[in-house]
Amino acid sequence: MKKLLALALAFAMSLSLAACGGTPASTPASEPAAPASGSSATEEKEPVNLRFYNYALSETAKADWWEETIANFEAEYDWITVEPISVDYNSMVTTLTNDLASGLTADIIYGEISWVPALADAGFIDKPENVLSPDFYAGYYPDVLSAYQYNDGIYGVPHYMTNWLIFVNKDLIEAAGLSMDNFPTTEADLKTWIETLADYYKGTDVSTIFGMTTSEVAATGMALNGLYTAFGGTLFNDDGTLADLNEATNKTALTETLDFCKYLIGNGYTQENLKLKDYRAAFGAGNVCMYIDQSWGYAQIGEVDPNAANFTVTAPLPTQMGTNGKGLSLVSAHTFLFGAGLEDSHKEAIDLFIQYCTSNEVMEGYLNNIGLAFPAHENMADVKISPILEGAAKGANNTVYQSMPAALASVQTELATAALNYCVNGMSLEDTIADYITQAEYYMNQ
Protein backbone atom coordinates (compact mmCIF):
# COMPACT_ATOMS: atom_id res chain seq x y z
CA MET A 1 0.00 0.00 0.00
CA LYS A 2 2.82 2.41 0.85
CA LYS A 3 4.35 1.81 -2.57
CA LEU A 4 1.06 2.45 -4.33
CA LEU A 5 0.56 5.67 -2.39
CA ALA A 6 4.07 6.82 -3.25
CA LEU A 7 3.55 6.08 -6.93
CA ALA A 8 0.15 7.76 -6.90
CA LEU A 9 1.59 10.92 -5.39
CA ALA A 10 4.42 10.97 -7.91
CA PHE A 11 1.90 10.50 -10.74
CA ALA A 12 -0.35 13.27 -9.35
CA MET A 13 2.59 15.66 -9.18
CA SER A 14 3.58 14.90 -12.76
CA LEU A 15 0.01 15.54 -13.93
CA SER A 16 -0.24 18.75 -11.97
CA LEU A 17 3.00 20.03 -13.49
CA ALA A 18 1.58 19.54 -16.95
CA ALA A 19 -1.75 21.06 -15.95
CA CYS A 20 -0.45 24.21 -14.31
CA GLY A 21 2.52 24.83 -16.57
CA GLY A 22 4.84 25.09 -13.57
CA THR A 23 8.34 26.34 -14.19
CA PRO A 24 10.68 23.31 -14.47
CA ALA A 25 13.59 23.13 -12.07
CA SER A 26 15.93 23.44 -15.04
CA THR A 27 14.54 26.84 -16.06
CA PRO A 28 17.38 29.42 -16.21
CA ALA A 29 17.64 31.40 -13.01
CA SER A 30 16.04 34.82 -12.96
CA GLU A 31 17.76 37.82 -11.43
CA PRO A 32 17.68 37.97 -7.61
CA ALA A 33 15.27 40.38 -6.01
CA ALA A 34 16.60 43.86 -5.31
CA PRO A 35 17.79 44.38 -1.73
CA ALA A 36 14.92 45.11 0.61
CA SER A 37 16.72 47.84 2.54
CA GLY A 38 15.19 51.26 2.10
CA SER A 39 11.70 49.96 1.31
CA SER A 40 8.95 51.50 3.36
CA ALA A 41 5.22 51.73 3.51
CA THR A 42 5.39 55.39 2.44
CA GLU A 43 6.71 54.61 -1.05
CA GLU A 44 4.26 54.28 -3.90
CA LYS A 45 3.84 50.56 -4.42
CA GLU A 46 1.49 48.42 -6.44
CA PRO A 47 -0.49 46.09 -4.15
CA VAL A 48 0.97 42.59 -3.83
CA ASN A 49 -0.83 39.53 -2.51
CA LEU A 50 1.34 36.67 -1.23
CA ARG A 51 -0.25 33.24 -0.97
CA PHE A 52 1.41 31.63 2.04
CA TYR A 53 0.89 27.89 2.56
CA ASN A 54 1.63 27.23 6.23
CA TYR A 55 0.96 24.00 8.12
CA ALA A 56 1.79 25.72 11.44
CA LEU A 57 -1.51 27.59 11.21
CA SER A 58 -3.24 24.31 12.06
CA GLU A 59 -1.43 24.18 15.43
CA THR A 60 -2.98 26.44 18.06
CA ALA A 61 0.12 27.89 19.74
CA LYS A 62 1.90 28.61 16.47
CA ALA A 63 -1.24 29.87 14.72
CA ASP A 64 -1.72 32.70 17.20
CA TRP A 65 1.89 33.83 16.72
CA TRP A 66 1.71 33.68 12.94
CA GLU A 67 -1.56 35.60 12.80
CA GLU A 68 -0.12 38.37 14.97
CA THR A 69 3.16 38.45 13.02
CA ILE A 70 1.38 38.68 9.67
CA ALA A 71 -0.89 41.47 10.95
CA ASN A 72 2.10 43.45 12.25
CA PHE A 73 3.98 42.98 8.99
CA GLU A 74 1.02 44.14 6.92
CA ALA A 75 0.67 47.23 9.10
CA GLU A 76 4.30 48.14 8.39
CA TYR A 77 4.22 47.28 4.68
CA ASP A 78 0.69 48.28 3.79
CA TRP A 79 0.88 47.44 0.08
CA ILE A 80 1.56 43.77 0.88
CA THR A 81 -1.18 41.34 1.84
CA VAL A 82 -0.13 37.94 3.17
CA GLU A 83 -2.88 35.43 2.47
CA PRO A 84 -2.33 32.46 4.80
CA ILE A 85 -3.52 29.05 3.66
CA SER A 86 -3.76 26.61 6.55
CA VAL A 87 -3.04 23.00 5.65
CA ASP A 88 -2.47 20.06 7.98
CA TYR A 89 1.18 18.94 8.09
CA ASN A 90 0.57 15.48 6.62
CA SER A 91 -1.62 16.88 3.82
CA MET A 92 0.57 19.77 2.70
CA VAL A 93 2.36 18.29 -0.32
CA THR A 94 -0.80 16.69 -1.71
CA THR A 95 -2.92 19.81 -1.13
CA LEU A 96 -0.31 22.06 -2.69
CA THR A 97 -0.01 19.79 -5.71
CA ASN A 98 -3.78 19.74 -6.25
CA ASP A 99 -4.08 23.51 -5.82
CA LEU A 100 -1.37 24.21 -8.36
CA ALA A 101 -3.00 21.77 -10.76
CA SER A 102 -6.26 23.73 -10.45
CA GLY A 103 -4.54 26.99 -11.40
CA LEU A 104 -3.88 28.46 -7.95
CA THR A 105 -0.46 29.86 -7.07
CA ALA A 106 1.91 29.49 -4.13
CA ASP A 107 4.36 32.26 -3.27
CA ILE A 108 5.70 30.88 0.03
CA ILE A 109 5.46 27.40 1.54
CA TYR A 110 6.30 26.77 5.19
CA GLY A 111 7.35 23.22 5.87
CA GLU A 112 10.19 20.73 6.11
CA ILE A 113 13.51 20.13 4.38
CA SER A 114 12.27 16.68 3.33
CA TRP A 115 9.64 18.25 1.06
CA VAL A 116 12.29 19.74 -1.21
CA PRO A 117 12.94 16.79 -3.56
CA ALA A 118 9.32 16.24 -4.61
CA LEU A 119 8.54 19.95 -5.01
CA ALA A 120 11.82 20.76 -6.79
CA ASP A 121 11.49 17.82 -9.19
CA ALA A 122 7.97 18.97 -10.07
CA GLY A 123 9.22 22.49 -10.76
CA PHE A 124 7.04 24.01 -8.04
CA ILE A 125 9.79 25.82 -6.11
CA ASP A 126 12.65 28.16 -6.98
CA LYS A 127 16.10 28.60 -5.47
CA PRO A 128 16.23 31.26 -2.75
CA GLU A 129 19.20 32.94 -4.45
CA ASN A 130 16.72 33.92 -7.17
CA VAL A 131 14.23 35.39 -4.69
CA LEU A 132 16.00 36.88 -1.68
CA SER A 133 18.30 39.91 -1.68
CA PRO A 134 21.99 38.86 -1.82
CA ASP A 135 23.08 40.51 1.44
CA PHE A 136 20.28 38.91 3.42
CA TYR A 137 20.73 35.50 1.77
CA ALA A 138 24.42 35.57 2.69
CA GLY A 139 23.48 35.74 6.37
CA TYR A 140 22.28 32.14 6.65
CA TYR A 141 24.63 29.85 8.55
CA PRO A 142 26.37 27.65 5.93
CA ASP A 143 26.18 24.44 7.98
CA VAL A 144 22.40 24.75 8.14
CA LEU A 145 21.89 26.00 4.59
CA SER A 146 23.84 23.04 3.20
CA ALA A 147 20.99 20.77 4.32
CA TYR A 148 18.93 22.26 1.46
CA GLN A 149 21.34 21.14 -1.27
CA TYR A 150 19.43 19.21 -3.92
CA ASN A 151 20.68 18.38 -7.42
CA ASP A 152 21.92 21.66 -8.90
CA GLY A 153 21.60 23.99 -5.94
CA ILE A 154 20.02 25.13 -2.69
CA TYR A 155 16.22 24.97 -2.48
CA GLY A 156 14.71 26.65 0.57
CA VAL A 157 16.02 28.44 3.65
CA PRO A 158 15.70 27.69 7.37
CA HIS A 159 13.53 29.75 9.68
CA TYR A 160 15.39 28.24 12.63
CA MET A 161 17.06 24.90 13.36
CA THR A 162 17.49 22.12 15.88
CA ASN A 163 19.46 18.98 16.47
CA TRP A 164 17.71 15.81 17.64
CA LEU A 165 17.65 16.01 21.43
CA ILE A 166 16.18 14.47 24.55
CA PHE A 167 13.35 16.14 26.46
CA VAL A 168 13.63 15.36 30.18
CA ASN A 169 11.10 15.79 32.99
CA LYS A 170 13.51 16.96 35.68
CA ASP A 171 10.97 16.50 38.47
CA LEU A 172 10.57 12.81 37.63
CA ILE A 173 14.33 12.41 37.27
CA GLU A 174 15.13 14.06 40.58
CA ALA A 175 12.41 12.16 42.45
CA ALA A 176 14.16 8.94 41.39
CA GLY A 177 17.45 10.20 42.86
CA LEU A 178 19.08 11.19 39.56
CA SER A 179 20.60 14.57 38.66
CA MET A 180 20.85 16.41 35.36
CA ASP A 181 24.37 17.37 36.42
CA ASN A 182 25.29 13.76 35.68
CA PHE A 183 23.23 13.17 32.55
CA PRO A 184 24.56 10.13 30.64
CA THR A 185 27.20 10.64 27.97
CA THR A 186 27.31 6.97 26.91
CA GLU A 187 24.68 4.51 25.76
CA ALA A 188 25.54 2.22 28.67
CA ASP A 189 24.97 4.97 31.23
CA LEU A 190 21.74 5.98 29.49
CA LYS A 191 20.46 2.42 29.87
CA THR A 192 21.40 2.51 33.55
CA TRP A 193 19.27 5.64 33.96
CA ILE A 194 16.39 4.05 32.04
CA GLU A 195 16.43 0.94 34.20
CA THR A 196 16.69 2.97 37.42
CA LEU A 197 13.68 5.05 36.41
CA ALA A 198 11.72 1.96 35.33
CA ASP A 199 12.22 0.37 38.75
CA TYR A 200 11.27 3.57 40.57
CA TYR A 201 8.10 4.24 38.56
CA LYS A 202 6.87 0.66 38.25
CA GLY A 203 3.13 0.53 38.88
CA THR A 204 2.63 4.31 38.65
CA ASP A 205 0.98 6.60 36.09
CA VAL A 206 4.33 7.18 34.36
CA SER A 207 3.70 5.44 31.04
CA THR A 208 7.00 6.01 29.25
CA ILE A 209 10.52 5.88 30.63
CA PHE A 210 12.32 6.70 27.38
CA GLY A 211 10.17 7.49 24.35
CA MET A 212 11.28 6.65 20.80
CA THR A 213 8.74 6.99 18.01
CA THR A 214 8.24 3.99 15.69
CA SER A 215 5.01 4.94 13.88
CA GLU A 216 5.17 4.48 10.11
CA VAL A 217 5.06 8.17 9.17
CA ALA A 218 7.63 10.56 7.70
CA ALA A 219 8.44 12.33 10.98
CA THR A 220 9.26 8.99 12.60
CA GLY A 221 11.51 8.15 9.66
CA MET A 222 13.46 11.35 10.28
CA ALA A 223 13.76 10.51 13.98
CA LEU A 224 15.00 6.97 13.35
CA ASN A 225 17.48 8.19 10.76
CA GLY A 226 18.67 10.65 13.39
CA LEU A 227 19.14 7.79 15.86
CA TYR A 228 20.94 5.69 13.23
CA THR A 229 23.25 8.66 12.58
CA ALA A 230 23.95 8.95 16.31
CA PHE A 231 25.01 5.30 16.26
CA GLY A 232 27.53 6.14 13.51
CA GLY A 233 25.56 5.21 10.40
CA THR A 234 25.33 6.93 7.02
CA LEU A 235 22.13 6.46 5.03
CA PHE A 236 23.04 8.40 1.87
CA ASN A 237 26.33 9.09 0.13
CA ASP A 238 27.29 12.69 -0.60
CA ASP A 239 26.20 12.24 -4.22
CA GLY A 240 22.68 11.32 -3.13
CA THR A 241 22.94 7.58 -3.73
CA LEU A 242 22.04 5.01 -1.11
CA ALA A 243 24.97 4.17 1.14
CA ASP A 244 26.21 0.59 1.34
CA LEU A 245 24.24 -0.62 4.34
CA ASN A 246 26.15 -3.90 4.39
CA GLU A 247 29.42 -2.02 4.91
CA ALA A 248 30.71 -2.82 8.40
CA THR A 249 30.20 0.57 10.07
CA ASN A 250 26.74 1.10 8.57
CA LYS A 251 25.55 -2.43 9.28
CA THR A 252 26.78 -2.17 12.86
CA ALA A 253 24.97 1.16 13.29
CA LEU A 254 21.74 -0.20 11.79
CA THR A 255 21.96 -3.30 13.98
CA GLU A 256 22.54 -1.23 17.11
CA THR A 257 19.72 1.18 16.20
CA LEU A 258 17.26 -1.69 15.82
CA ASP A 259 18.55 -3.38 18.98
CA PHE A 260 18.11 -0.14 20.94
CA CYS A 261 14.51 0.15 19.75
CA LYS A 262 13.89 -3.49 20.70
CA TYR A 263 15.43 -2.84 24.12
CA LEU A 264 12.99 0.02 24.66
CA ILE A 265 9.87 -1.69 23.30
CA GLY A 266 10.62 -5.17 24.59
CA ASN A 267 11.11 -3.97 28.15
CA GLY A 268 8.12 -1.64 28.12
CA TYR A 269 10.25 1.50 28.41
CA THR A 270 8.45 2.91 25.36
CA GLN A 271 5.35 1.97 23.38
CA GLU A 272 5.23 0.67 19.83
CA ASN A 273 3.80 2.63 16.92
CA LEU A 274 3.43 6.01 18.65
CA LYS A 275 3.99 9.33 16.86
CA LEU A 276 6.01 12.23 18.17
CA LYS A 277 2.80 14.13 18.90
CA ASP A 278 1.71 11.28 21.20
CA TYR A 279 4.88 11.57 23.27
CA ARG A 280 4.57 15.36 23.36
CA ALA A 281 1.07 15.14 24.78
CA ALA A 282 2.04 12.50 27.33
CA PHE A 283 5.16 14.44 28.35
CA GLY A 284 3.06 17.57 28.88
CA ALA A 285 0.74 15.53 31.09
CA GLY A 286 3.70 14.47 33.24
CA ASN A 287 3.64 10.81 32.19
CA VAL A 288 6.99 10.59 30.35
CA CYS A 289 10.46 10.70 31.92
CA MET A 290 12.44 11.24 28.70
CA TYR A 291 11.91 11.04 24.96
CA ILE A 292 13.72 11.95 21.70
CA ASP A 293 12.33 14.84 19.65
CA GLN A 294 13.09 18.07 17.84
CA SER A 295 13.25 21.21 19.96
CA TRP A 296 9.97 22.66 18.67
CA GLY A 297 8.08 19.68 20.01
CA TYR A 298 7.78 21.84 23.10
CA ALA A 299 4.98 23.81 21.41
CA GLN A 300 2.65 20.83 21.84
CA ILE A 301 4.01 20.07 25.29
CA GLY A 302 3.14 23.60 26.34
CA GLU A 303 -0.37 23.29 24.92
CA VAL A 304 -1.04 20.43 27.36
CA ASP A 305 0.46 22.23 30.36
CA PRO A 306 1.19 25.97 30.07
CA ASN A 307 3.50 25.58 33.08
CA ALA A 308 5.53 22.77 31.52
CA ALA A 309 8.62 25.00 31.50
CA ASN A 310 8.80 24.42 35.25
CA PHE A 311 9.69 20.74 34.79
CA THR A 312 11.11 20.56 31.23
CA VAL A 313 14.82 20.47 30.45
CA THR A 314 16.79 19.02 27.54
CA ALA A 315 19.98 17.08 26.89
CA PRO A 316 21.93 16.13 23.77
CA LEU A 317 22.19 12.55 22.63
CA PRO A 318 25.07 10.75 24.37
CA THR A 319 28.37 11.23 22.57
CA GLN A 320 29.13 7.51 22.77
CA MET A 321 26.44 5.38 21.16
CA GLY A 322 27.16 1.75 20.42
CA THR A 323 30.42 0.68 18.79
CA ASN A 324 31.20 3.65 16.57
CA GLY A 325 28.55 6.28 17.29
CA LYS A 326 29.50 9.75 18.50
CA GLY A 327 25.98 11.05 19.03
CA LEU A 328 26.07 13.04 15.80
CA SER A 329 22.75 14.61 14.84
CA LEU A 330 21.11 15.51 11.56
CA VAL A 331 19.97 19.10 11.16
CA SER A 332 16.24 19.74 11.27
CA ALA A 333 14.76 23.08 10.32
CA HIS A 334 11.39 24.65 9.77
CA THR A 335 11.63 25.90 6.26
CA PHE A 336 10.62 28.63 3.84
CA LEU A 337 10.21 27.41 0.26
CA PHE A 338 9.51 29.80 -2.62
CA GLY A 339 7.21 29.31 -5.59
CA ALA A 340 8.58 29.08 -9.12
CA GLY A 341 8.05 31.74 -11.77
CA LEU A 342 7.44 34.63 -9.38
CA GLU A 343 7.12 38.21 -10.58
CA ASP A 344 9.73 40.70 -9.36
CA SER A 345 7.15 42.50 -7.22
CA HIS A 346 6.37 39.26 -5.42
CA LYS A 347 10.06 38.51 -4.91
CA GLU A 348 10.56 41.91 -3.30
CA ALA A 349 7.55 41.38 -1.03
CA ILE A 350 8.74 37.90 -0.08
CA ASP A 351 12.20 39.24 0.72
CA LEU A 352 10.69 41.83 3.05
CA PHE A 353 8.47 39.25 4.74
CA ILE A 354 11.25 36.69 5.29
CA GLN A 355 13.56 39.38 6.68
CA TYR A 356 10.78 40.50 9.01
CA CYS A 357 10.23 36.92 10.22
CA THR A 358 13.98 36.46 10.75
CA SER A 359 14.66 39.44 13.00
CA ASN A 360 15.67 39.45 16.65
CA GLU A 361 12.68 41.55 17.63
CA VAL A 362 10.12 39.27 16.01
CA MET A 363 11.71 35.92 16.84
CA GLU A 364 12.97 36.15 20.42
CA GLY A 365 9.59 35.59 22.05
CA TYR A 366 8.75 32.77 19.66
CA LEU A 367 12.04 30.90 20.11
CA ASN A 368 11.76 31.18 23.88
CA ASN A 369 8.10 30.43 24.46
CA ILE A 370 6.53 28.63 21.49
CA GLY A 371 8.69 26.93 18.85
CA LEU A 372 11.87 26.49 20.86
CA ALA A 373 14.86 26.33 18.53
CA PHE A 374 18.28 27.70 17.67
CA PRO A 375 18.97 30.59 15.23
CA ALA A 376 19.89 29.80 11.63
CA HIS A 377 20.59 33.36 10.41
CA GLU A 378 22.93 36.08 11.66
CA ASN A 379 19.95 38.43 12.05
CA MET A 380 18.96 36.28 15.04
CA ALA A 381 22.47 35.96 16.45
CA ASP A 382 21.55 38.00 19.53
CA VAL A 383 18.36 36.09 20.35
CA LYS A 384 18.47 34.68 23.86
CA ILE A 385 17.94 30.94 23.75
CA SER A 386 15.25 29.43 25.95
CA PRO A 387 16.60 28.09 29.26
CA ILE A 388 14.86 24.83 28.38
CA LEU A 389 17.34 24.31 25.53
CA GLU A 390 20.48 25.12 27.49
CA GLY A 391 21.21 21.46 28.18
CA ALA A 392 20.94 20.44 24.52
CA ALA A 393 22.71 23.50 23.11
CA LYS A 394 26.12 21.84 22.74
CA GLY A 395 24.52 19.16 20.60
CA ALA A 396 23.48 21.80 18.07
CA ASN A 397 27.12 21.92 16.96
CA ASN A 398 27.50 18.13 16.89
CA THR A 399 25.75 17.76 13.55
CA VAL A 400 26.57 16.11 10.24
CA TYR A 401 25.53 16.81 6.64
CA GLN A 402 23.21 14.40 4.85
CA SER A 403 22.49 14.57 1.13
CA MET A 404 18.88 14.69 -0.01
CA PRO A 405 17.78 12.24 -2.74
CA ALA A 406 14.30 12.35 -4.24
CA ALA A 407 13.32 9.24 -2.27
CA LEU A 408 14.43 10.74 1.07
CA ALA A 409 11.06 10.60 2.85
CA SER A 410 10.21 7.07 1.67
CA VAL A 411 13.62 5.61 2.51
CA GLN A 412 13.52 7.17 5.98
CA THR A 413 9.95 6.05 6.65
CA GLU A 414 10.91 2.46 5.80
CA LEU A 415 13.16 2.59 8.86
CA ALA A 416 9.99 2.68 10.98
CA THR A 417 8.68 -0.39 9.16
CA ALA A 418 11.99 -2.13 9.81
CA ALA A 419 11.87 -1.25 13.51
CA LEU A 420 8.35 -2.65 13.87
CA ASN A 421 9.23 -5.79 11.89
CA TYR A 422 12.13 -6.50 14.21
CA CYS A 423 10.74 -5.29 17.53
CA VAL A 424 7.10 -6.34 17.23
CA ASN A 425 6.47 -8.67 14.28
CA GLY A 426 9.14 -11.25 15.08
CA MET A 427 11.32 -10.83 11.99
CA SER A 428 14.95 -11.79 12.52
CA LEU A 429 17.62 -9.11 12.53
CA GLU A 430 19.24 -10.34 9.32
CA ASP A 431 15.90 -10.59 7.52
CA THR A 432 14.89 -7.15 8.79
CA ILE A 433 18.05 -5.52 7.47
CA ALA A 434 17.85 -7.39 4.15
CA ASP A 435 14.20 -6.41 3.72
CA TYR A 436 14.96 -2.78 4.57
CA ILE A 437 17.74 -2.63 1.98
CA THR A 438 15.39 -4.11 -0.63
CA GLN A 439 12.70 -1.53 0.13
CA ALA A 440 15.19 1.35 0.21
CA GLU A 441 16.66 0.33 -3.15
CA TYR A 442 13.15 0.07 -4.60
CA TYR A 443 12.35 3.69 -3.70
CA MET A 444 15.78 4.94 -4.77
CA ASN A 445 15.29 3.39 -8.21
CA GLN A 446 11.88 4.97 -8.90
From TrEMBL:
| GO term, biological process aspect, one | maltodextrin transmembrane transport
Per its UniProt entry, which superkingdom is the organism in? Answer: Bacteria
Annotated GO MF terms? maltose binding
Tell me where the signal peptide lies.
Answer: 1-18
The record's Pfam families line, in alphabetical order, gives: SBP_bac_8
Q: InterPro entries this protein is in? A: SBP
Q: Which PROSITE patterns match?
A: PROKAR_LIPOPROTEIN (PS51257)
Which GO cellular component terms are attached?
Answer: ATP-binding cassette (ABC) transporter complex, substrate-binding subunit-containing
Q: Which UniProt keywords apply?
A: Signal, Transport
State the family it belongs to: Belongs to the bacterial solute-binding protein 1 family.
Q: What is this protein called?
A: Extracellular solute-binding protein
The species this protein was found in: Candidatus Allofournierella merdipullorum
Organism phylogeny: Bacteria, Bacillati, Bacillota, Clostridia, Eubacteriales
